[in-house]
Specification:
This protein is of the alpha/beta class. It has two domains: 170 residues, 3-Layer(aba) Sandwich (Rossmann fold); 117 residues, TPP-binding domain (Rossmann fold), CATH 3.40.50.1220. It has a nine-stranded mixed sheet, sandwiched between helices. A five-stranded parallel sheet has the order 13-12-14-15-16.
């Protein structure tokens, strides 16, 4: 499929990640706009079975079975994708800005010698190629870029698009790709450590309650967590409080953390600095609780509640629990 647009998907616990569904949707949209073929490439153990969940977005899925064993997963994915690219000659690769995805993009850039655009917040077709929207200077400015010549790698941030079903589902094609004679990475994985995380994954959560400096310390997150529990929400945080050690990095939202797109985002004691804004500004409804009526978050919040979060959040939690009969 020369000239095609490929989305490079990932798996977690045997299923495609949410970001993979978003990339498949993006590939389908660019295909419809350009008239070029599209496909999603899924590499890993159990790829053929997991691929069934991705075809609903429209593009066919190329499923490549591969057991990483004691090797870094990113290297295994990049090797197989590079081999497929040489054989089938697509023009553009969409890679997710996850931890493994960034490594995959870097390895593909070095192997294929293709230009790469990173930290992409939006992609649309313009003329002969994708036009990529990126933020620079801590999110203060936006740029629009494109590739010359007609090929490149786009590293797409989570929540840049919403995963949606396509007009017609694609099909799964199981592809055999042998491991290369020379590996991209000679290192071995000698131990895997799983970090304890919240019950609700922050990237998947439809509702997030986040805390900033206004919570005043690790104990202050108690009221944030209580409200999150009442709402069935995930707990988020700003970089400042993560750096202070008040809560773990898994909760960090913003330029150097995670990008989220919940239906409801409650920001408690968060000033709304641009570095945090870029990670949550696409939320459906933003409710801010802050004692400072002039805090920057007031400029883009849908509802600004001026007051002490330690008075407001417990009352809100109690009201929600009473309404639900808890």
């Amino acid at each position: 499929m020369p000239g095609a647009i490929w989305a490079i998907a990932e798996m977690a616990d045997g299923e495609p990640t949410r970001l993979s569904h978003e990339l498949a949707t993006l590939a389908a949209g660019l295909s419809a706009a350009s008239g070029r073929p599209a496909a999603t490439v899924l590499v890993g153990e159990g790829a053929a079975a997991a691929a069934e969940a991705l075809v609903a977005h429209g593009p066919d899925v190329l499923a490549v079975e591969a057991d990483p064993r004691d090797r870094p997963l990113a290297a295994v994915i990049a090797e197989r994708v590079a081999t497929l690219v040489r054989a089938r000659e697509p023009s553009f690769l969409l890679v997710g800005a996850s931890n493994d995805g960034r490594d995959v993009a870097g390895m593909l850039q070095a192997t294929l010698e293709w230009a790469t655009l990173v930290n992409c917040a939006g992609v649309r077709w313009n003329g002969d190629g994708p036009q990529v929207e990126m933020s620079i200077f801590g999110g203060r400015l936006g740029t629009l870029s494109h590739f010359t010549p007609d090929h490149g790698i786009v590293v797409v941030r989570p929540s840049a698009v919403s995963a949606e079903p396509g007009p017609q589902p694609g099909q799964v094609e199981t592809v055999e790709v042998a491991a290369p004679a020379v590996s991209l990475q000679a290192g071995r994985v000698v131990e895997r450590v799983a970090e304890a995380s919240a019950a609700v994954a922050i990237e998947e959560a439809p509702v997030i309650v986040a805390g900033g400096r206004g919570v005043a310390g690790p104990e202050g997150f108690g009221v944030v967590e209580d409200l999150a529990t009442a709402l069935g929400a995930a707990v988020g945080a700003t970089r400042a409080v993560v750096d202070a050690g008040w809560i773990g990095y898994a909760h960090q939202i913003g330029q150097t953390g995670k990008s989220v797109k919940p239906r409801l985002y409650v920001a408690a004691g968060i000033s709304g600095a641009i570095q945090h804004k870029v990670g949550m500004q696409t939320s459906g409804t933003i409710v801010a609780v802050n004692r400072d009526a002039d805090a920057p978050i007031a400029e883009f919040a849908d509802l600004m509640v001026v007051g002490d979060l330690f008075e407001i959040l417990p009352r809100l939690t109690a009201a929600i629990r009473a309404r639900r009969g808890q």
